[in-house]
Amino acid sequence: MADKEIYDENSSRSSSDADKEFLLDENEGVQRRAALKLSRRWHVWHLVFNYFIIFVLAGALIWEKNRLNVRDLSNAVYSPIDAILEYKPKLFSDNVFQETPYQEPYDDETDKLWDDLYNASGFVLLDYEDAMRIPNETVLVGKEKKGLVQIEVMHQLHCLNTLRKILTPARYPGLRLHKPDGTENPDVRTHINHCVDRLRQGVMCNSDTGLLFWKWHEGVQEYVLNFGSMHKCANFDAVREWAFSRNTDADNLPSNVYIGDELRTKEPMGN
Q1: 261 has pLDDT over 50
Q2: Is 16 in the same domain as 107?
Q3: DSSP the chain
Q4: Residue 99 in contact with residue 233, Cβ under 8 Å?
């Protein structure tokens, strides 16, 4: 009987120890699973955080690149006219079948229309502060040291008007390509070549993206281009007014000054 009691006691202790070990193992398993779950959760959040940082940095880089591009485009070539420049939609005339006043006839009235576009803007004076910001050096005039410039669009209009006049040499003998003796006038040839290529550069630079359309023409019984199309245009009247208000007479300008080509404004020698 004593042996049985001893056996039962040992058996009871053995069972109790086993239960404790089981509970310990189970507890350790729960802890390991909890730790593993926590580790996985932390790993997921770590990945999310890393991706978030990458996304933010990528977005910042793209924004900065775009910002620099916009800044470079707007400031690459400074012009004080940009401050007043605005764009508006404009309907171009279909000047093939309906001429504008700037076409024919070649008479004093038409000449005046062309001259009034640009003639009073050949010598524009910039304030000294603006002159110091332009990308190329130019002459500084007078005690106020104003910068002497000409606006590109005005020069292009001059070139276009010159080519227009060359079409009618009888009216504009000074622009005849050939002299009375039949020899070529090299000055006129040079002027023509200059104007043609200057206009080419201007047209390509501005790259008007307006669209021309086709239409059926009853008179010729075929499709023709419709030149009466909409375009996005700079407000030329505002540019013209700005230029005319700053124009000076050529007689007021010095002629014996050096004009260099360095990328800065330079005061003329002798002033």
Answers
A1: no
A2: no
A3: -HHHHHHHHHHHHHHHHHHHHHHHHHHHHHHHHHHHHHHHHHHHHHHHHHHHHHHHHHHHHHHHHHHHHHHHHHHSS--GGGGT--EEEEEPP-TTTS--TTSS--SHHHHHHHHHHHGGGSSEEE-HHHHTTSSS---EETTTTEEEE--HHHHHHHHHHHHHHHT-TTT-GGG-SB-TTS-B-HHHHHHHHHHHHHHHHHHHHH------EEEEETTTTEEEEE---EEEEE-HHHHHHHHHTTB--GGGS-SS-----SSS--PPTT-
A4: no
Residue span of the structural domain in which 24 resides: 1-76
Q: Count the domains in the chain.
A: 2
Distances (CA, A) of 26 to 17, 21, 22, 40: 14, 8, 6, 21
Question: Between the ranges 30-44, 45-59, 63-77, 143-157, where is the mean pLDDT highest?
Answer: 143-157
The angle subtended at Cα 127 by Cα 126 and Cα 128, nearest 5°, is 110
Domain boundary among 23, 49, 76: 76
- pLDDT tens across 15-58, in order? 555 555 555 555 565 566 666 666 666 665 666 566 566 666 66
**Residue 71 pLDDT greater than 50, yes or no:** no
Is residue 167 included in any domain, yes or no?
Answer: yes
